Amino acid sequence: MIEHTIGESDHDIRLDRWFKRHYPALTHGFIEKALRKNDIRLDAKKTTAATRVLTGQTVSIRCKLPEPEPETIKKPAPFRPTNEDKQMLLDCVLYKDDDIIIINKPAGLAVQGGSGITKNLDAMLDVLRFDASERPKLVHRLDKDTSGALALARSSKAATRLVKLFTSKEVEKIYWALAIGVPQIAQGKIDLPLAKQEEEGDREKVQVDEENGKKAITLYKVLDRLSNKLCWLELHPITGRTHQLRVHLSAIGHPILGDGKYGGQLAFIEGMDISRKLHLHAHRIIIPGVLDVTAPLSPHIKKTMSTLGLYGD
Fold this sequence. Notes:
- The protein has 7 helices and 18 strands.
- By secondary structure, the chain is of the alpha+beta class.
């Protein structure tokens, strides 16, 4: 029997999607048959492909997994970081102790591999081993295009503690964003339930769903503004739904600058020398009584804010 514990990076995804990530050679038909025969279980109970797995749950595989035919095996070559990649990652370290590493993840670097993604943080974690006996472990994630503070555990024991802190909301995460327009209320709360849409390939998309969505709350505060065209926001997600900040801001008519996925053309300012990248940054991560780390702004966000006169050096 094979058992896997669901990590924070796989929290709240469908079971069949979990298998696609971790067992890409298995067909959907094989998974469905194994589920019907109770050969795949979740926390020792019968389950379905559509069930969403949660951090800490256990997936049990009680059947022999088929070996793919040799001609069907098309594994991409494993990503091997260059010396430049290694130095880049070492330069990203903001904080390190015996249990935790906090890095300033660059915008554009995926946390994990996926369809069409080879270069990713997970594939480079040995670079951050330092003197530890284990390679660092992911305990939460940021979107590929979101920059900023990301916590890593330096051991399995530390990972278990950190996942509990994240799932119990004892870790405070504060984001900065540049958004289109300016909310009428300078400081407020967005309380809109969110649900995942039908997924196409490996692309996730989320929408507001008042009937079937899961509770999602974001606190926001306007820190500065450029007339009524754009504002600088501080964001505090009380819940941690996928793409929560991006969907919430788009839903109230103020998409994040550069977020074409949720804001469409409204998310861009034409006629100005401004980056079209996503302007969302994990500014600060706080574990009460343990650490309080601030991540310097991503270069493209800093440049935009400087250009618009919203933030000084």
